[in-house]
Amino acid sequence: MNGTPPALSSSRWGSRTKRVVVLICLVCVGFAILNLLEIFPILIISTLLSYLLWPLAIFFERRVLPPPMSSRSLAVFLAFVTVIMLIIFVIIIIVPALVSQLADIGRSLPETVATIEADLESSLNRPLRILGRTIIVDGQPLIPMERLRELTGTQSTTDLVQPENIDVFGTVRGILGSVGSLTGPAFSVLGGFFTTLFNFVFLIVITFYLMRDGDRFATQAVQITPEAYRGDVARMLYELGKVWNAYLRGQLILCSTVGLMVYIAALILGLPNAPILGLIAGILEFIPNIGPFIALVPAFLLALFSQSTTLTFLEGLPYGLVVAVTWTGIQNIEAFYIVPRVMGESLDLHPVVVIFGVIAGASLAGPLGIILAAPFLATIRLIGLYIYGKLFDIDPFPTPKKSPLPPPPGLSERLLADMRRYLAEMQALVWRLLPTGLQNWFRRFRSRFTGRFQNRVSSEPVLPSNNVDEPEKEVMP
Q1: How confident is the model at residue 246 (pLDDT cuts 50, 70, 90)?
Q2: pLDDT digits (tens, 9 = 90+) for 155-206
Q3: pTM over 0.85
């Protein structure tokens, strides 16, 4: 077996043979994908984890480890250790606080439900008024509770909400069944302890090798491409990297920032369970466009049936409106200030498209589909633009045209310019109101002690003279 390898004896494949082989390979790949759908969530999660932890491993390799010990494997190991320590810190420090908050919510829930029931009964026992006018039905004021009693055949208010009349457990089972139907396709591999343990080990191993050899995989993907398309593949990988990098790391920054802002706002407004509200807002930030509005609901309901602990004059509906306005302000700060600076225009997707993508992702892959809907749509958009460009002989990745005009000033620059203008006008007004003698004294004071600033006199605002007959230009002090 040693020595020169034997030469190939077959001739080159013809075009028909190549097409048949490609078709067979595609069928085999499709069959394998259909039978290995259960491991796809693990592969996707491991790819995302390796992508997120990649900068940390590079930091350890280039900045922390000395040259004799510098290796990618050791850097990846240190990155894993750092993340595990962070998770342990969260479990030890943050989780007990969250459990305590949830216990407080559980203890206060019966009282809250009783308050809601009392308020609802009181409002339903009063005549219904719309725009200041009482609604009259059959010559009598319409009282909603009496009409409900007539329709349901009950004699008392409590009969309307008896446990035997409400199938709570059936409703809960239906909700859980719906949730299970959504999350089943994405997390069906997590059934049973040993299966979960195996999947976890598989996830860690795949993540380790992707972090260690990820750049090598990308280079090999470019090299195995036909030479005429290597530049296209490299450019496509570059554009896709920009999209996923901006979304994933930007989304982590957004979640942390919005969660912290909501937590601080809840503390200032005196909302109970501020850490829970901050955690809810941070987690729901992963749902594009819809999550922030969902996060407003528990905060509004909590304020509606409680009193502020810091601003004691706020309670009930006014308190709920203040919370709603504050949460809306946080959403606007996120949308108009944080998102453009963190993500830029990397996705370039209309909100309606993102919302439809989130709904489709939820039905196909559960929570994982919700989180990855936006970057997946952006990926499809990039591939579609490339195919469109090749079909119609146009540049798939056109260079954006630079505007000949300078970019408009930002909000901070406009505010500073307005402040300078108002201060200059106020200074000129005060100067005109000063007596002539005091103005002359300021001029002598200026000429005596500030002669070194004469070179800057021409750039300062000019004031009108007090002498109407002989107008002359005067300088402000």
Answers
A1: confident
A2: 555 554 454 444 444 554 454 455 455 445 444 444 567 777 888 888 888 8
A3: no
| Cβ neighbours, 10 Å, residue 274 | 20
> C-alpha dihedral over 330, 335, 336, 337, to 10 degrees?
70
Region 251-258: what's the mean pLDDT? 88
How many residues are present in the chain?
A: 477
Q: Which residues contact 296 (CB under 8 A, 6 or more apart)?
A: 324, 327, 328, 331
Do residues 397 and 242 lie in contact, with contact meaning Cβ atoms separated by under 8 Å? no
d(CA 259, CA 282): 4
pLDDT value at residue 219: 86
